[in-house]
Amino acid sequence: MATTMAHHGPPTVVLHLLIKIHLALVLCSLLPTSVGAFTSNHTLVPCLANQASALLRLKRSFTTTNYSIIAFRSWRAGTDCCSWVGVRCHDADGRVTSLDLGDRRLESRGLDPALFDMTSLQYVNLAYNDFNMSQLPPKGFERLTMLTYLNLSSSRFSGSVPTGISSLTNLISLDLSTGFEYTELPPVGHILWGEVPTFNSISLAGLNFEALMDKLNNLRELHLGMVDLSNTGTQWCIVVAKSCPKLRVLSLPNCQLSGPICSSLSGLHSLVVINLQFNHLSGQVPEFFTDFSNLTVLQLNRNNFQGQISSAILEHKKLVTINLHHNDRLSGFLPNFSTSSSLVNLNIGRTRFSGVIPNSIGNLVSLKKLGLGANGFYGQIPSSIGNLKSLSELEISGKGIVGSIPSWITNLTSLTTLQFYGCGLSGSLPYFLGDFKYLNNLALCNCNFSGHIPSYISNLTQMQIRLLSSNKFSGTVELTTFRKLPNLIALDLSHNNLVVIDGEFNSSLASLPKIVHLSLSWCNISQFPDFLRHQDEIKFIDLSYNRIGGAIPQWAWETWTSLYYLALANNKFTSVGHAPFLPLPIDILDLSNNMFEGAYQYLKALQYAYGNNLTGKIPLSFCDVTSIQLLDLSYNNFSGPIPSCLMEGAGGMLSLNLKENMLRGEFPDNIKESCSFEALDFSGNLIEERLPRSLISCKHLEVLDVGNNQISDSFLCWMSTLDKLEVLVLKSNKFFGQVVPSLPEEKSACAFPSAIIVDISSNNFYGPLPRDRWFKKLKSMIFRDPNSSLIMDHGVPNVGGSYKYTTAITYKGHDTTFSKILTTLVFLDFSNNAFHGSIPKAIGELGLLHGLNMSHNSLIGPIPPQLGHLNQLEALDLSCNELSGEIPQELAPLDFLTILNLSDNRLVGSIPVSPHFLTFSNSSFLGNDGLCGPPLSKQCINTTTLNVVPHHPKKNSVDIILVLLVGLGFGVGFATSIVVAWGIPVKKRSS
Q: According to the UniProt entry, where is the signal peptide (predicted)?
């Protein structure tokens, strides 16, 4: 859904309050009888003097503010401390047993050790106060041996978890978490605000997770949200299951957890709450969750779960919340829901759920939030949703969802969020949308809505988020009309047929809303919007693909002090309007494809300045900005050497793209052991000498493109230790020698198991091709994980979103730049070298190959019939060699083959006869004097026609998808691999 609250944020909906009350009741039922004294101020024995003294010392450790004056108003020396607000004592001896200062907004420079003098404490709550990033005391907690409840959540502590906490064997509830809130914009999943931190300031440094949990066998509640548990690896699950057999609440959101959920967790039958959102968990969602009869909350959103989830989980009778949002490889179908379901919150958006939305969803009468934002849904939206009178948030997507916005939505009078995106809904916006007086989030994106944007939408004064991008809306929109929406924080009108202008300003500029996110891409804007002059709280601006020229106004840099994203690509800007440095530390800056000239200076995290006319040397000022993660200066006129500081790779930089400049010299060989590079592109320059051997420090490297330079080096067997390398492009350089060296120890090491693109064409390699053993090591060309992503991309830490890699290869005879590297594109190019000998038979085992080019060498011998096993092959070029023998009949059934070039060899015999082979022109076979048969004019004598039956499969929706993809320039095999990866059934062809 658009707005999401993670663990322990202030409650915003009734659901969270109900869950909190429920858990509090559960906890009270588990506490020892003596804790019953917490509920009464009356004590038989007054507070002991040493206890009062400790409390007063603790009071003095807090800064005096209005909040502290209120909190400690009753804390006066000489009075009974057992009657002080937030303090409870044991009836029998006057010792303090409970200290509750939670959510008082207190401030302190550190936790005073006076707390540990109250050794009878059983209950301590200091949550939601501010301890100014002070460290938790390393000693003292071990003295609180009677403690059953410890809550230090969201109190801005830092440092390591004290070892003393691990010895508190009576603990029933432990909370060291930090709460977070975020708002996510559909359909791209961009986080609007509340950037979710990677981990809490509290860490387990010096105390591993197993050591922390080992003695906490009585624990019922465990809250460690945003505590970094990454060092635990996949063992976290086993540790929890072993140490906490009585656990009822497992809350570990945003803890950097990885791996699957282990089967040993199935023994925790008492679990009521499972909150594992914002982690890196993978594998299937365990079906044993259905055995947890008391489970009410299941939050697994923002992970990497895959496979099909059991519908029994969705039918669980006790579950109140099911959140599976943003698990892109998780599939499933909605069941027939029973009237006995307890669901209040259901979100399966950004998953691969599919099918028809069942009419029985109307049985979920308690539902308040319904997120069905999965592209696989189709058919009509069931009218039974109109019966869900308590529904406050509704989100639906699916390209197969057709029709118009249904009128029954008017029954949902409590709606605050309405989102239709990525769907087939069409038509103009109905008048009744203006009746939703509580609506604060309207997202109608990437559908087929048309017509003018009606003015009555501006009457929805509660509106905070308005997203109307990627439709067919037309007409003129004046930005000043949004002054009627004082709460508006996000506006997206991109990718329509709109003309956006400023409009008339009046003297009441103060009435303009304070926008946080503004996206006006493709809005036919010709002048820089003066509307932005008054947006001093804005963080995200996208004005790309308009017609704005000249300089960025000076007032922009004075106004946008909170800006972290600025996209001005594909305009006519000539100057940033500020020199010599950009004055703001913008995280993401895209100035590409404008008319900037001259030197280019200061950037921060994700920087795109490609496609301009920037000149001179690459400024060393880049090296002073340690937070640069992605730097793209491609397609400019930078000259001189690559700055050595950029090549260190130790500052967290993920991608460096210097493609198509005029850089000279050699690569700096100073890459550090902590190298973080994932993608390097230096293609299209004038770089000489050899590649830096320090590249072996880049253990995360996935893409290396150095094509079209003047590099003189041997083959890169030494790089085979980089087991994540997927794209290796060395084409058009001066590489030399054999691909696999003659030394036995080097032969065994020269392997690239993750490679899907290897292009070493147009170099000076010689000798025989690598033998069978080398090709068999190309594992990713043999097998592909069906659950893996279709596109090579990576999330960008601390920024949000993802970055897609690019590369340029010669595909089907044309130089092609892939702006997105699809993992289904598997390509091998050894052409234009001096290889000799025969073609290895093992190439026939690379069943995922789409392109194979070994032309312009000196290869001899026959074409291996094993190439007939390459069922995905679309392009085969073996031309300009000395191959002999007949064309193998096994090639005839390769139906996906669209480019075939066997010209200029010594092939003989008849060309295989098949309907598919008849589609190739005679140029595919010229220069082979011994060949005969169609399409050549030379007839064969005494030949037998191969009996190949043409395929005429029945047309269906898959065929249509294939035709569309092929029409966009992809081959049939490539298109089919995408269809299969999407999980669309493809009818097998019969022969």
A: 1-37
Distance CA 573, CA 591 (A): 9
916-919: long-range contacts, CB 8 A cutoff, minimum separation 24: 916/892, 916/948, 917/891, 917/892
Task: Confirm if 688 and 710 have CB atoms less than 8 A apart.
Answer: yes
Q: Give one word for 872, left, alpha or beta, with left for phi > 0 and alpha for psi -120 to 50.
A: alpha
159: β partners: 202
Q: Predicted confidence band at 914 (pLDDT cuts at 50, 70, 90)? A: confident
Record the pTM. 0.74
Q: In this structure, are residues 175 and 223 in contact, taking their beta carbons and an 8 Å threshold?
A: yes
Residue 133, pLDDT score: 92
Q: Which of 405, 326, 320 is nearest to 368 (CA)?
A: 320
**pLDDT tens by residue, 272-289:** 999 999 999 999 999 999
User: Dihedral of the CA atoms 814, 818, 821, 827 (nearest 10)?
Assistant: 10
Given a contact cutoff of 8 angstroms between Cβ atoms, the answer to whether 20 and 294 are in contact is: no
Q: Kindly state the greatest CA–CA separation across the chain.
A: 119
**Would you say the C-alpha torsion 742, 746, 749, 750 has a positive or negative sign?**
negative
Distances (CA, A) of 623 to 79, 260, 627, 649: 62, 39, 10, 10
pLDDT interval class at 610 (50, 70, 90): low
Q: Hey, what are 498's tokens?
A: 């709109």
Q: How far apart are CA 653 and CA 625, in angstroms?
A: 10
**Burial status of residue 506 (CB atoms within 10 A of its CB: 0-12, 13-18, 19 or more):** exposed
CB 658 within 8 A of CB 685: yes
List of residues 6+ apart from 624 with CB closer than 8 A: none
What pairs with residue 356 in β-bridges? 378
Bridge pairing between strands 851-853 and 827-829:
parallel
3-state secondary structure string across 734-761:
CCEECCCCCCHHHHHHCCCCCCCEEECC
Predicted pLDDT at 619: 75
Rg (CA), the chain: 33
Residues in the chain: 991
Contact 221, 246 (CB under 8 A): no
Q: Left (φ > 0), alpha (ψ -120 to 50) or beta: where does 668 sit?
A: beta
CA 833 to chain centre: 40
Helical segments of 542-690, H only = 554-559
The token pair at 725 is 């390398």
**Residue 139, Cβ neighbours under 10 Å: how many?**
11
- Hey, what are 565's tokens? 């994203």
Q: How far apart are CA 230 and CA 233, in angstroms?
A: 6
Taking Cα atoms as reference points, which of 136, 83, 132, 82 lies closest to residue 106? 132
Average pLDDT over residues 106-133: 96
| First CA to last CA distance, the chain | 48
CA angle 247, 248, 252 (to 5 degrees): 80
Assign residue 797 a region: left if phi > 0, alpha if psi is -120 to 50, beta otherwise?
beta
Own/partner long-range contacts of 968-972 (Cβ < 8 Å, ≥24 apart): 971/812, 971/850, 971/874, 971/875, 971/896, 971/898, 972/874, 972/895, 972/896, 972/898
Structure tokens at 240: 């929890």
- Produce one character per residue of 162-191: b if its CB has 16 or more CB atoms within 10 Å, e if not: bebbbbbeebbbbbbbbbbebbbbbbebbb
Query: Rounded CA gap, 891 and 869, in Å?
Result: 8
Is 503 in contact with 478 (CB distance < 8 Å)?
yes
The answer to whether the CB of 349 falls within 8 A of the CB of 326 is yes
The H-assigned helical ranges of 614-726 are none
Rounded distance between C-alpha atoms, residue 140 and residue 124, angstroms: 14
- Between β-strands 882-886 and 497-501, what pairing exists: parallel, antiparallel or unpaired? unpaired
